[in-house]
Amino acid sequence: MELRRYVRWLFSPAEGLSNRAVHSGVWSFALNGANRVVQLLKTIILANLLSPDAFGLVAIAIITFEVSQKITDIGFDHALVQRKESNVDEYIDTTWVVQAFRGVVLLVSLSLVAPLIATWFSDPRLTPVIRVFALVALLDGVINPAIIYFQKDLELHREFGYRFSGTVANVGTAILTAVWYETFWALVVGIIAGKIVELLMSFVVTDYRPKFRFNRDLAGELLQFSKWVYTSSITIYIAQQGDDSLVGWLLGSSALGLYRLSFQFGNAPATEIANVVSSVTFPLYSKLQDDTPALRHTFKRVTEAVFVAALPATVGIVLVAPPFTKVVLGEQWTPMIPALQILVIGGFVRTVAQTGRSLFRGCGVPRWDFWMNVVRLAVILLTIWPLTQEFGIEGAALSVTLGLFSMLPLWLFQTQRITETPFRHYLKIFLVPASASVVMAVPVYLVRRPTLFGFLASVTVGVFVYSVTIYAILRILGRRPVAELRQITETLS
Description:
By secondary structure, the protein is mainly α. It has a domain at 252-493. It has helices spanning 3-11, 17-49, 52-72, 76-82, 89-120, 126-141, 148-152, 156-181, 185-204, 216-251, 253-266, 268-288, 292-329, 337-362, 367-391, 393-405, 408-419, 423-447, 452-476, 481-490. The chain is globular. It starts with a helix and ends with a helix.
């Protein structure tokens, strides 16, 4: 296929649900990959300019902001994507009014509680920081809800410009501020700049202009679906961020800075793969929810792709975490290495669970996502305090990982029930990348050294050995990976 045909396809895909799904997956992967590279650059630069205390301080403000966001987010955007009708313009106005009202409420509320949060964490610097984050809530509330059409119609190439422009503004502003002033405010003003650009772009890249009008009946329809998304989101957030709050309160801002960065790097593969999976498969499953054979085939392919991508990344990060931290971030960050290695394992489990989350929501049964996360939260609540007191940030990481593992039985049971997939298929999907990852681990362990060259060499060796090994295993099993890839690319034309 000629290069210009690929380029033309990137911006104007052919018709057909499967073709649009592949197209959206490519753009989602590109968006998340570009975001991750830029954010990684930001983190590395700022980690060498700012202290763990600076990261921890801003993390407390972010946690406060995100808690307020989650408590008041009733999930109308998910409900809009899940609806079967293609045109949801009449719902967007109501959604915009609700979001704007929420933004005003959060602006006032966060401004008022800021001194209380500062007192709770015994750090007066938090008061102005949290009040600045209140502005982010207002900006977020007036973003054009019509951007949901990018996901609903599987047109994620249009979302790329909207999302990535905000990331560039965030990273660029933060780095410049840190270079000039070397202050924790660099992290804050970067977030503000990124959100302003996102707001402006939401009206540039969409044709629909929401009107300030509210329809109670339409809001009620959206709420019927979103109530389960809301409860699930709250549960997920407490499970994901409750550990941060406890670490910050129990161990201090420096420990929280170490923990947050270990979580960021430990969950990097999980976050990117999960974002791609959810952005593409949620609307895809919504369209296939009445076609069980197609749903089963799609879910198996998605799960296989997740295992093939996430498992070697998990093994690789566990092995190269020590040289990466020392060489790239600096000696002041080395205490986070054990927590990072534990969290990357939990991140892999979270990626697997994400395949079920998208399936449950796409098929109109988000309550199973909620119950899956209730189990997760219960395990964390039972273990987080004693493990953190006993082992510090490593104990918190272990509690979070145990919680994620507790989700797997319900995930397995419900995905089997919905897609009618036998258990042996899951086993086959797992064993191939697991075997290749074990083979990969040996040379990576032997090559790694606490130098930049040793780190780069171990990554290169790992990618090469894994690719060759998994190709050989698939050929032994009678699969034709090159032919399968060619079939995918042929659908692009």
